[in-house]
Amino acid sequence: MSQIYNFSAGPAMLPIQVLRQMQDELLEYKDIKASIMEISHRSTDFIAMAQKSEQDLRDLMNIPNHYKVLFLQGGASAQFSMVPINLLHGKTKANYAYTGHWSKKAIAEGSRYCDVNICTNSSDNKYTDIDVFENWNIDSDGAYLHYTPNETIAGLEFDYVPEVDMPLVADMSSSILSREVDVSKYGVIYAGAQKNIGIAGLTVVIVREDLMGNVVANQPILFDYTTQAKNDSMYNTPSTYSWYVASRVFEWLKQQGGLSAMAKINKAKAKTLYDVIDGSNFYSNPVALKYRSWMNVPFLLADENLNGLFLEKAAINNLITLKGHRSVGGMRASIYNAMPQKGINELINFMKVFEKENS
Ligand SMILES: *Cc1c(COP(=O)(O)O)cnc(C)c1O
After folding, report:
1. Whose CA is nearest to atom 3 of ligand 1?
2. Residue 133 Cα, ligand 1 centroid: separation in angstroms?
3. What is the pLDDT of residue 188?
4. Distance from the alpha carbon of residue 75 to the mean position of ligand 1, in angstroms
5. Could you give the CA distance from residue 72 to residue 349 in angstroms, rounded to a whole number?
6. Which CATH number fits domain 16-256: 3.40.640.10, 3.40.50.300, 3.30.200.20, 1.10.3720.10?
C-alpha cells in the first residue's frame, strides 16, 4: 500500500505503527486466544490494559494524584451536559467563552441547566481572533468557566490559559496531547478520542477530585463523575476497543518522547504549512497569527472555482480529506499527532505545483 496522508478533522488518521499493532493483535490479544474485543471488561487482561493506559496518560500529561481520569462514552458532546450537571454545585450561572462552533454547542447545552454568561465572543470576527483576557466579562457568581482551547473548524487556538478564581473547564477534543499542559490549572479537561487519542467511542475526562459528588438532582447516574470514578469507568461496559486503541496511542506517544517532543514536531509541522500559505497570494488563512491552530489549518484558494480541481488532484497524489468545513469553505488540513512532517512536506509540494499550474 502506498503511503496515504489523511487530513481528516475527525475521526482522524492514526499512527501507522498503531494500526499495524492493532492488526497484529486483532485475532489474538496476548495469549488469551481471542481478540480484546471479545473478552470481558472485568477480565484480568482487560483490567491490566486499562490500568496501564491510565498510568501512561498520567505520565504523559503529568496528571496530579488529586485528579481522576475517566474513560467514558458519549463523546465530547455528552460532556457539554456532564459539566453543568457536575459542576454547578447549586449555583445558577456559568461563564462560557464563545470562540467557535464547538463552544457554541457547549453553550447551547449549558443553557439548559443554567444562565450562561458569554464572557467573550468571537462570532463578530467570524472566529478568526480571540479578545485579550483583560477584556473578558467574567461573572464572579458563575460556577465555572468553560472554554475551547482549540476550535477545530475555524482553526482558532488559544495561546494562553485563562486565569480565574473558579474551576476552569476545557474541551480539548482537538488539541489534547499535542503539547504539554499544566493540568493543575484546570478543574475539568475532556476530549473525544477520535482526533488525537484514538478512535471514536471513547471520551477521556480528567477531573479534580474535590469537584465531584455534588450533582444536579435526578440526572442519569452514568452522568455523575462519582459513579464513573468509583467504578474505574466500568459501572457499565466501557467502549473496550476504543480504550485499547487509546492505550496503544499512549504507548506510541511515550516512544516518540512524550508531549514535549510532540510539541516541537507539531509546532514545526504547522509552521511549514502556514509559511507556504502566507508566502503566496494563491492561498490564504484569515486567523490572527497568534491564534493559529497547530492542529487544524483551514486555507482558502483565491479562486474558489478551483476548489474541486484542488481536491481531485490532491486525492490523486494520496492527499485525502482536505475539504474545508462547509461553514468556512475552502480547505482544511487537520494535522494531529499522527500526521508526520513527511505528510506536510507532500502537501506543500503539491500546493506549490498546483499554484504554478493554475495561476
Ligand atoms: C469534534 C469535537 C467535538 C465533538 O465531539 P464528539 O465526540 O463527536 O461529541 C467537541 N469539541 C471539539 C473541540 C471537537 O473538535
Report:
1. 76
2. 24
3. 98
4. 7
5. 40
6. 3.40.640.10
